[in-house]
Design goal:
Layout (H helix, E strand, L loop, with lengths): L30 H10 L6 H11 L13 H11 L4 E9 L4 E8 L4 E8 L4 E4 L3 E3 L8 H5 L1 E4 L2 H16 L12 E4 L9 H12 L13 E5 L3 H7 L7 E5 L5 H7 L8 H15 L3 E7 L7 H11 L4 E7 L13 H13 L4 E3 L22 H5 L1
Parallel strand pairs: 4-7, 7-8, 8-9, 9-10, 10-11, 11-12
Antiparallel strand pairs: 1-2, 2-3, 3-4, 5-6
Helix pairs in contact: 5-6, 7-9, 10-11
Amino acid sequence: MTTERPTELKLVFDEPVQRKKAPKHLADFAPAERKAFAKELGFQPFRAAQVATHYFTHLSNEPDEWTDIPAAERQSIAQALTPKLIELVTTRTTDGGMTRKDLWKLHDGVLVESVLMRYTDRTTVCISSQAGCGMNCPFCATGQAGLTRNLSAGEITDQIVAAARACANGEMPGGPTRLSNIVFMGMGEPLANYNAVVRTLRNITDSNPDGLGISARSVVVSTVGLVPGIEKLMDEGINCTLAVSLHTPDDELRDSLVPINNRFNVREVLAAADAYEKKTGRRYSIEYALIRDINDQAWRADLLGRLLRNRNAHVNLIPLNPTPGSKWTASRPEDEAEFVRVLEGYKVPVTVRDTRGREIDGACGQLAASEIISEDEKAK
């Protein structure tokens, strides 16, 4: 006898038709393609490499400083090869300024958010790969907002370069520092915007001046479990860290908590993650938002421990962050502690994640770009 699976909740993989695409940007192209891009725009091909050096190596958005380019051409070259894709609308900070959430307006007025966090040993930016998200997870503010559109590689990369520039300019307490870590855990499902995300990953990991020269070991791509995307990513040769948003070990609950489970169940997702780990040599992480009386029972911890005890995986437990109108809340401290104890009993590495940014709606699952913008701001 076969058990009929529940009706799949609405998932959105294809972005709505856009009225106007984002302007093309140097970061949309591979290094070998950038010369042709410059030539197509009427500039000498070697200008592309010069601009890439200023953009990726020097993090400069001030063409007047580009002294290797004739002064009369700097503005026109900058506007053509590195058009302004994101505009800072608001910045909110917490943790004494060590955590900041930036709200960005894109060329078409769409809003996205990124979060920059400085720790004692690293500085991390959490970036968005889509405006909204089509995966419909009910406990996530972004998922409930629905998918507005995909971001271009240029729009994603610009968030990272802006964060790197803020670090280099000493905009956070503690003085100038280097952006060291990048996590694709902001708005959107990265593997549903595959091509733009992979181009961005290469922009991050390619050496200067072709890219930012940040190690793939310091980059995390999160996914709800798009198995075909995981399988493609393992063959890209980038070898970043994979994070799987599992949130429960049983299909019955995951079908509703993470609706993509109706297409790719727990067994299939973990098999893809195992294959990724085997191919890349990179241990993957399991992201698990602890929700009071929903997925935080000791028996679910036991099932998760049994699933992971022989896998090269690390569990990040995330106390559920509050979102407007949500009926759910974080687990009780004693239930969280028991969950950890059970996993440790199976010798599964486990960490209870920091809830950085919760006060400014910048923590995991809270990004929704919901700030109200004044009419003056809209008109800009």
